[in-house]
Amino acid sequence: MQLPAMLRPWADWLSLFPPDLAKTMGDLLLRLSPLLTPLQRQAARVAIDPAGVGDIVTRGSYDRLLISEWAYADAVPDEFLRRAANGELLFSGPEPANSDEPLSSVALFDAGPFQLGEPRLVHLAMFILLSRRAELAGAEFKWGILQRPDILFTVQGMEALKHLLNVRTFAALDGAGLAAWEHALGQGVSDCWLVGDARSPRPAQIRSLVTIRRAWQADLLDVTLALRRGSTTVALALPAPADCVRLLRKPFEMQVAPTVMQTAAAGPHSLKQAPHFGTMRQWLAVAMVDGSITLYHVPDSPNAQPGRPRKISGSKQASTRVALGLVGKSMGTVSRVGQDLYFANFPGTFFNAAYPAAPEPVTDLAQLTPGVAQPLRAFHLQHRVDAKTALERVLVLDKQGALVSWTRTGRQGGKTPPATVNLEASQVIGAYQTSRCILFAVVKGERTDIYELGPGDVTKKHLMPLMYKGIRFLFGSVDNWRGGGGLYALETEAGNWLVGDRSGGEFVKPGEGAEVLGAGFSQSADLRGLVVLSPQRTRIELIGAEQRCTLVESTEKIAKASYDPVRNRLAWLGFKSGSLTVRGLDQEKPVLQTISAGATNGQ
């Protein structure tokens, strides 16, 4: 790694970090290094034995007067007095002071609650500076944690820095601990440092104190070095937030670029269906041109490697599918052949191929038509009645707003029980499944009611009413709905949306031609609103009542996009390349990018 000349004194330490973090750490070292002075050897004793001829001085006690001077006193007394008056007499000087003890430097680091977070960046830098300072003086460097008395380490390098960062405590040093440190340090230590909070108790041997505190009104750390001769304070600018997090959590790991992986043998993505987020954060379903479905394992961060995609074949069944639902990591399908319905791949016991189920007659309660470009949404709930009995439901929301359920209950290992068909609700204008329940909105007269249906619920539970009649409903912040903090977007009339939560809302008009994907909240912009694909299909925006912000600026047109209100993520397909991109609403880098094997334009 090439370093600027100013950073080469710490090259061995900086080589432990990835190149981008080495520069960040180097900036901290350059800012703090002027506070330190070189470590110098101090005398442990002063000898009184006379030295040789080389140590002749013009001052001293007369018991050390040279014999030649006594000769002047005997032979020429007047000359002796003149030499004494003018300071010309010669004495043997004392032996130069030498240390009997090896030179050492000790540093204690405060791991208490006032030093959590950004102040620990100064701990890292001071550790490197003090270690290098001791090395230049030929001294031994020892260090310890203030809250762990009587333990001094000599380990250096990466292991020392890892241990320093991993030690965190809410405990304070008590009187017994302070006494233990003073006993352990003893009387021989002359260079002893404490790096931490000004309010922390410190042993009597501490000679130099480095205190760190966060500035009130800026992204700064106030670092003060207090010595016997005075104190010096510097305002240390904090690195970028992402670099701070990496230095404190994983300082020695190389940052992985956003992953681009080929969908091996999966074929091109279909541009007729939007990516489908499931009930588990790791999985995303994308329809393929040949009728199959690819399940992508989505990592939690840009630095994590994605899992292998799974392909669910279905070229023959694609023309008969009427509904799809990604529940967990299972892509459940509802297909229609003639007047019969077939359920496959749902988790649980009674609605999958592992436990063959007889086809069900098509019910008049739902309009189920196969072959549509955008399949209906299917949901699945399962409930353990007792140790051997299970209850499962598959629900489908049709184009007419009917939420219909097929329920089977029975014992594992027996024959497939017949399904009970029930109309859970009509005039449903929006539904979403979480890992715990199904949420849906129903229009009743001039208002809209929000309901919840859990795995073991006999009937739906009413959550809240909205005093507006809607034509479409989207859920946001889904996990907060039980606590009353869920976000919603209700389209009251074409192009006019009410966005809010239980405490109230405001109307938002996204504009003609815009495609509304969901209701979201951006922490970085402090804005709640509609997640919208622009009419030009090159931007995804968050639009509030009075302001808007751009979330995605695409270099190519976006064919299809979707929004996950649980994990606050976006997924979209490029129109020309067919590539899939997944990214957090407030993230700059995607957590997953794929390149489809083959052209998809127009498919």
Compact overview of the structure:
It is built from eight helices and 37 strands. The longest helix has 18 residues, at 119-136.
Could you explain how this protein is built, in words?
- The protein has 603 residues and is mainly beta.
- It has three domains: 56-92, no CATH class; 100-249, 3-Layer(aba) Sandwich (Rossmann fold); 275-298 and 311-555, Methylamine Dehydrogenase, Chain H.
- Helices cover 14% and strands 35% of the residues.
- It is built from eight helices and 37 strands.
- Strands 17-16-15-14-18-19-20-21 form an eight-stranded mixed beta sheet, with no helix packed on it.
- Residues 43-49, 258-265 and 598-603 have low confidence and may be disordered.
Total beta strands: 37
The largest pleated sheet is described as:
8 strands, mixed
Structural class: mainly beta
State the distance separating the first and last CA atoms: 47 Å
Label the CATH architecture of the largest domain.
7 Propeller
Number of domains: 3
Calculate the mean pLDDT score and round it: 84
Topology:
Blueprint: H1 11-14, H2 19-32, E1 56-57, H3 67-75, H4 77-85, E2 91-92, E3 104-109, H5 119-136, E4 140-145, H6 157-166, H7 175-185, E5 192-196, E6 208-214, E7 220-227, E8 230-237, H8 241-249, E9 260-262, E10 276-277, E11 283-287, E12 293-297, E13 310-312, E14 321-327, E15 330-337, E16 340-344, E17 360-361, E18 376-384, E19 389-397, E20 403-411, E21 420-425, E22 428-433, E23 438-444, E24 447-453, E25 461-466, E26 472-476, E27 487-493, E28 496-501, E29 504-508, E30 515-522, E31 527-533, E32 539-543, E33 548-553, E34 558-564, E35 569-574, E36 580-584, E37 592-595
Helix pairs in contact: 2-5, 3-4
